[in-house]
Structure formats: C-alpha cells, structure tokens
C-alpha cells in the first residue's frame, strides 16, 4: 500500500472515530432518560461500534465485512481505551499535565495504534476481498462443440 492510500485510510478512520463518538453519545444520552445508565452505555457502544465497523469496512479499507472481522474489530477500541488510559495516567501523574488536555492528547497519540489494529481486523492478509478493484475482462470461453467444429484455420 502506498503512503497516499494509507494516509487516506487514516484520515477516514479518524473522521469516522469522531462521528462514532457522537453516535455513541447521542444513543447513550437518549436512552439514559428512560433506562439505567449502564444499560444505555452498552446499547450506545453496540450501536456505535457496529456503525464504525461497517463504515470502516466499506469506506476506509474497501472490503466486505465478515463475522470474523466483526469479532476482531473491537480490539482496536480496546487498544484505544487501554493505551489512552496509560498515556492519560502518565501525563497527569508524571508530567503534571491538566486532566482534560491530557485526555485529548492521549486520544490523539493512541489513534495510530488503534488504526493499525482496526485495519488488521478488517483486512486479515490475503483473505480480504476488496470491493473496489475492477476485475480484468475474461475472454469468452468456447464450448467443446465450438472447439470440435472449428475450421482448421481458426
């Protein structure tokens, strides 16, 4: 993959991540009015991760989604939470940075790792089936009868 395509994918992944956050919060805040907050959190997360998976499959890496990829995809989110949490903790406790600014910085710094894991989950090597690559035209196949009945100079 060339660097231009990788940059395009990363940019789309980051944009979908921002949209995914908004979807999560919208679902969470809407459901939290009439259901317990943890239940609203689970539903919001499920809706947002499913949407993120489909967008990143079809648009970012241009591949058909599979169940295997769907199961692996949340690993990128887990890396984001764990890696971001570690960076947040270090920035606040060791560097004395502001908690709010540190949270944003940690999120930005961990996004490339999250992107690499998401791309790995969605395109596991040669088993990926790209949607956008055109297939070369195949020459018409001749049937057995056409081959047997062909003139000698053909």
What's the short story on this structure?
The chain has 154 residues and is an all-alpha fold. Helix content is 70%, strand content 0%.
Write the layout of secondary structure elements.
Elements: H1 3-31, H2 37-60, H3 67-72, H4 74-93, H5 99-122, H6 144-148
Helix pairs in contact: 1-2, 4-5
Characterise the protein shown here:
This protein has 154 residues and is mainly alpha-helical. The chain is built from six helices and no strands. Helix 1 (3-31) runs antiparallel to helix 2 (37-60) and helix 4 (74-93) runs antiparallel to helix 5. The chain is globular, with a radius of gyration of 23 Å. The two termini are 43 Å apart. Mean pLDDT is 83; it is low at 126-130.
Number of beta-strand segments? 0
Summarize the helix and strand pattern as letters: HHHHHH
Structural class, from secondary structure content? mainly alpha
Shape: globular
Count of helical stretches: 6
What quaternary form is this?
single chain
- Spans of at least 5 consecutive residues whose pLDDT stays below 50 are 126-130
Report the biggest beta sheet as strand number plus sense, adding barrel if it closes.
Answer: none
Separation, N- and C-terminal Cα atoms: 43 Å
Share in helix: over 70%
Which percent range describes the beta-strand content?
Answer: under 5%
Taking all Cα atoms into account, the compactness measure Rg is 23 Å
Rounded mean pLDDT is 83
């Amino acid at each position: 993959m060339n660097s231009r395509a990788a940059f395009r994918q990363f940019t789309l992944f980051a944009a979908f991540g921002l949209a995914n956050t908004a979807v999560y919060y919208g679902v969470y805040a809407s459901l939290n009015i009439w259901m317990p907050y943890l239940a609203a959190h689970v539903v919001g997360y499920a809706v947002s991760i499913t949407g993120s998976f489909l967008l990143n499959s079809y648009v970012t890496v241009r591949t058909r989604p599979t169940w295997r990829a769907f199961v692996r995809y949340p690993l990128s989110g887990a890396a984001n939470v764990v890696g971001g949490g570690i960076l947040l903790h270090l920035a606040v406790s060791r560097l004395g940075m502001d908690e709010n600014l540190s949270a944003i910085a940690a999120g930005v710094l961990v996004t490339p790792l999250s992107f690499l894991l998401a791309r790995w989950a969605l395109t596991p090597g040669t088993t990926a089936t790209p949607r956008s690559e055109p297939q070369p035209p195949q020459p018409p196949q001749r049937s057995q009868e056409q081959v047997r009945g062909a003139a000698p100079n053909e």
